[in-house]
Design a protein that fits this description.
Rossmann fold, seven-stranded parallel β-sheet, binds NADP nicotinamide-adenine-dinucleotide phosphate, 10 helices, globular
């Protein structure tokens, strides 16, 4: 029986490289994101790598369209092995704009986009009594970031969801992993003009992610420098130190 993986945010960056890595393992991939042309080219590369699958051009905020795509994906032959709620956006809070629009956009995509992706799969995963769910959070989830609190807050929220979901779904042999990357090469980090320590190439990062998800890690913080240095500092350093680094 073929295995299937569903990935949101598969048109670039981490999601794109996750798709290639699973295609090499001959999975059937379900790829979701808004940019139809990019998804089509990712899918066609997946086919050349040994995979097969389908692309679903959609916005993760369109819950009904996403549910219809998930139902279609479930109906394809094979078992659903893993789901990645990976789609996400960054962006400044625009704290002094007098308008909540910028923050709300980040909160919606990064939080509701995740629930819209994960929840429709749960009855199916329970019925097959197995499955792995991975949600891409961030090391940014460990401290409220000045100017980017919607981003850090949204990533903290979904990391917290993972803990709750894992507790509730454990008895159905369903694991839920919160993936907390540091800096990884992608369109998101290309756009940010700040020092990005310990940055990893995308293909290297996805290998680490897949290994952690297959081992059913509950929280995976990487690279190791982030796990042992940056996250402890972010969690425990006094505000005056954090302010100095503008984190
Ligand atoms: N790169 C890093 O250093 C880093 C670190 C920590 C966490 N992360 C997280 O990793 C995830 C992937 O980001 P990335 O770094 O790979 O950046 P990216 O290259 O910008 O990828 C983001 C993906 O999300 C999709 N997306 C955004 N809004 C969407 C929406 N409303 N509906 C459907 N798809 C949407 C984008 O596709 P379309 O534009 O085609 O819709 C794209 O495929 C994000 O959740 C990000 O927060 C990244």
């Amino acid at each position: 029986m073929k295995k299937k993986v569903f990935i949101t945010g598969a048109s670039s960056g981490i999601g794109e490289y996750l798709a290639y890595a699973y295609a090499e393992k001959e999975y059937i991939v379900g790829l979701a994101a808004r940019r139809e042309d990019r998804l089509a080219s990712v899918l066609s590369k997946c086919k050349t790598l040994g995979g097969d699958g389908k692309s679903y051009p959609l916005d993760v905020l369109e819950a009904e369209a996403l549910k219809a795509a998930i139902d279609d994906f479930i109906s394809l032959p094979g078992d659903v092995d893993t789901i990645y709620a990976n789609a996400g956006v960054g962006g400044s809070d625009k704290l002094s704009s007098g308008d909540s629009k910028a923050m709300n956009r980040v909160l919606k995509v990064n939080i509701l986009g995740v629930t819209n992706t994960v929840l429709p799969f749960i009855p199916y995963l329970k019925s097959q009594n197995k499955g792995k769910i991975a949600v891409v959070s961030s090391v940014a989830s460990f401290r409220g970031l000045a100017y980017h609190s919607a981003y850090s807050g949204s990533k903290a929220a979904v990391r917290n969801f993972c803990q709750g979901w894992d507790g509730a779904l454990h008895k159905y042999n369903i694991s839920v992993s919160a993936i907390c990357p540091g800096f990884i090469t992608s369109e998101m980090t290309d756009e940010v003009d700040v020092h990005q320590p310990f940055k990893l190439d995308t293909d290297v990062a996805v290998k680490k992610i897949i290994r952690a998800v297959e081992r059913r890690k509950k929280v995976f913080i990487f690279p190791w420098q982030m796990r042992f240095l940056m996250v402890p500092v972010m969690k425990h350093a006094p505000d005056w130190i954090i302010r100095k680094f503008n984190m």
